[in-house]
């Protein structure tokens, strides 16, 4: 039951991420939360979650550097 609910919530967040990729919104946040839900049961999702976290860290560091000038 717990796995089913977690996968349903993960799917919802992935769909919201896809929706907000088309219209302006926080799509990356929804993708990360959806991947986090999937990563409890799927190791490949854990890999993609790590890639998204690294990309978000790099982009935040880049923006901090540009805005500090």
From TrEMBL:
A Pfam cross-reference name: PGPGW
Family annotation (InterPro entries): Uncharacterised_PGPGW_TM
Highest rank taxon of the organism: Bacteria
Protein name: Tellurium resistance protein TerC
Protein source organism: Pseudoalteromonas porphyrae
Lineage summary: Bacteria, Pseudomonadati, Pseudomonadota, Gammaproteobacteria, Alteromonadales
